[in-house]
Sequence to fold (126 residues):
Amino acid sequence: QVQLVESGGGLVQPGGSLRLSCEASGFTLDSQTIGWYRQAPGKEREGVSCIGSSDGRTVYTDSVKGRFTISRDNAKNTLYLQMNSLKPEDTAVYYCGTSARITRDCLTQIYGMDYWGKGTRVTVSS
Fold:
């Protein structure tokens, strides 16, 4: 059974950093499209960063470019999101999602994700 477990969220001040982790089980991490998505109160879930299975390239939403970095440790079957220079606008629940069917355009294929973790909350506030 595919499982995704996020961790690493918390409360940080603007300008601070956090590293989120997504521990995957039930599949090989690099065999499927996988990424980070977030949802703020009252807003739709949006793509933050993901890695397409077709070519392994990473993509980021414009609002986090230069501040966030997605990476993976295949040996540990774990996906990471390093978040630097955090802003209050980054406050949201961050979810890890994966799909065996979606191979590209993963940033926008939110409804194509087959599995989701339960999320980890990130709050950026002074």
The CA atoms of residues 7 and 21 lie 5 Å apart.
